[in-house]
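Review form for a predicted model. The reviewer records the input and the model, then writes brief findings.
Reviewer: anonymous (R2)
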Amino acid sequence: MERLCRILSVFALVMLLSGCNYNRIIEDNSLGEYFRAPQRTSSVYASKVFEYTPAPGQFIGDPVVFPTIIQTPEAACAWAKERLDAKKFVSLGAFGGFIVVGFDHSIVNLGSYDFAVYGNAVTGGSEPGVVWVAQDANGNGEPDDTWYELRGSEYYNAFTLRNYSVTYYKPTDAGQPVAWSDSEGQEGTIDYLGTYHPQASYYPTWIAQSEYTLTGTRLKANNYDQSGNGSYWVNPDYDWGYADNFGSSNFRIGDALDAEGNPVNLKYIDFIKVQTAVNAKSGWLGELSTEVLGFEDLSINASSR
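Model under review:
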């Protein structure tokens, strides 16, 4: 009987959230003490950027998209929020670069597509980013809780590496590539493409340290030179489950997995993180870098509000 009551309680909330009456305030505490029910004034879009830490990349500091030189992490977050509000892309740079956003309410797990992450991928031009979700389990309003990776098509691929790290080293002079080394003992560079992106450096100006390390899940790079002479590179699409991947902008909270790969039953989430998932470059096109243009709660019927 107790289990039946819980099921009926969740079902009732789902009916409220999926219905068309958002002229009333939804009040329901059945999902937990820190669940923040959407209100009639709630926005379907992300309301805050908590952190924006890209890896080095050709768009980082580019004067076309960065009108001023950013000096602090707080200013970087404000810039990213302005870009997202204008539906303009925010580049996460090379492998490991990430952005963390939150909403003015909790996003409910409805068992279907719960939220969207919009990118600028076209077929053959995908730059996949792994999507992570978190619940404000301690109720402090900050994304300092456990992160859960959303399962995508490559999760069980033997070439997928978890807890993969890349350390990036700040160039000593302008116009230089950014060197990196990784946890697999490999080294490389983020190439400087001055003809297209002439800023002094692709290293984020608001990161004061001479080096920094980013850790996440790395997918196998599938990009290749179709022309054979370096003139035409292809970044193939992955099947499903990644941001900035052609054909897969919608995501399910139900795909969340813990660090051991076990499904977790999250009834709602409060934070979303997207992180560049490939360490590769495509010739004159430069490094593969995930771009995001917006985050939307699909559990709210925006057309009725």
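Findings: The longest strand covers residues 98-108.
Further findings: Residues 43-299 form one domain.
Recommendation: see findings above.
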